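User: As part of a screening pipeline, I want to sanity-check one entry by hand. Below is the sequence and the SMILES for zinc ion. Please return the complex as structure tokens so I can compare it with the automated output.
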Amino acid sequence: MSKFLDCGKINPTSGCGHILVAENEEELLQLAAGHAKDGHGVDPSPALLLIVKANIEEGEFESSGVVERV
Ligand SMILES: [Zn+2]
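Assistant: Here is the complex for your manual check:
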């Protein structure tokens, strides 16, 4: 089971169609921090981190990383 974040749920106004997938929470948070900066020009703040943590879900994915929502 992988951990994942639906970026569009964390910031609905972004219209982001990416899902971030990682093996564990620590990797996922690193991935999210990188995506926030590279994908949205947002510096990961403690407040953002709380929202991100509240939105972590579990699911089956074939690979880790940033994938397009289908
Ligand atoms: Zn995004």
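Points to compare against the pipeline: The beta strands are 2-6, 18-22, 57-59, 65-68. Residues 5 and 55 are 6 Å apart (CA to CA).
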